[in-house]
Amino acid sequence: MIYLLLNIVFGSLFVLCIKWVQVRNREDIITIGMINYIAGAFASLPEFVQSHPSVVTPEALVTGGLMGGCYFVAFFFVVYAIKWIGVASSNVIGALSILCPILAGIYIWQETPNLFQAWGVGLALVSLSMIGGAAGKTPSLNRKWIVPLILVSFFALAGISRLSQEAFRHLCDADERPVFLFTAFCLAAIPSVVVLGLRKKRIVWREWGIGALLGTANILQSHFILKALKEFPGYVVFPVVSAGGLIFTTLVATWVLEERLTRRAYLGIGFATIALLLLNWK
Q: In terms of Cα–Cα distance, which of 218, 163, 158 is closest to 33?
């Protein structure tokens, strides 16, 4: 259970940090995002070297590369989603992407939830949609078509990245986790270096620091979700971290970043708490 809680904290820290940078409006968020993946690659290197992998399987490379590619592309979508509809509502979209690994786990890998856990999955999805009732900033009328496109793309990319984590659990040995993470963040770091080079923008020390913080949070949340998947099936892990992360992110966004929530959103938080209890029912 400790791995689930740590994933919730570090996963939430990632999106909250993006929102905080946007509120400050002093640093360049794209620069910080690119530094984040470069820092993540360096952070994953010591464990990769220490593990001394004798065999690097194609499955670990493919699943890790798939997650890294989704991470890199999804960053641009989540930045604009947070800007236009708020961090709490954007987190709903990412949380709803649990449908991808849950359905894959049930129909491909024959994972079978019990009755209480099945109700928990359904209630978690209901609660996630209700928590998304926060008021957010919307684009001008001539750009309204962009919002659905960004949200659908973000949903798909988040779902594929979660699915790659679930695929790793089924296709790879747990000892290949350092290979998986190093592959993922290296693949995200390479285009990040290219983007920084093409932009030719001067990077200030604050951007290096915030980017390194983001990268550390990113690698830790990926590390802990893989640890959690080693102990629990995907239909438990993904709803728990999604609903729990959404509760944590929503509360911090409300109290610290002063995002406003509707009554419906607060009711959704209560439903999510019940869902967490059901999902952990043995």
A: 218
Report the distance separating Cα 100 and Cα 167, nearest Å. Answer: 11
Spatial neighbors of 95 by CB under 8 A, at least 6 apart, are 128, 242, 243, 245, 246
* pTM of the complete model beyond 0.90: no
- Among all chains, which residue has been given the structure tokens 């770091």? 189
SS3 content of the chain, % helix, strand, coil (to 5): 80, 0, 20
pLDDT tens readout for residues 232-276: 877 777 777 877 887 888 788 888 877 776 777 778 777 777 876
Supply 242's token pair: 């999604």
- Find the largest Cα–Cα distance for the chain: 56
Rg for the chain, CA atoms, rounded: 18
The whole-angstrom separation of Cα 70 and Cα 159 is: 9
Q: What's the start-to-end Cα distance of the chain, in Å?
A: 13
What are the domain boundaries of the chain? 2-279
Show the DSSP H helices in 142-201 as ranges: 146-171, 177-199
Please give the backbone phi and psi of residue 52, each rounded to the nearest 5 degrees, phi first: 50, 60
Contact 38, 192 (CB under 8 A): yes
For the cut 80, the answer to whether the pLDDT of residue 60 exceeds it is: yes
How many CB atoms lie under 10 A from the CB of residue 137?
Answer: 10
Chain centroid to Cα 170, Å, comes to 20
**How far is residue 80's CA from residue 224's CA, in Å, rounded to a whole number?**
27
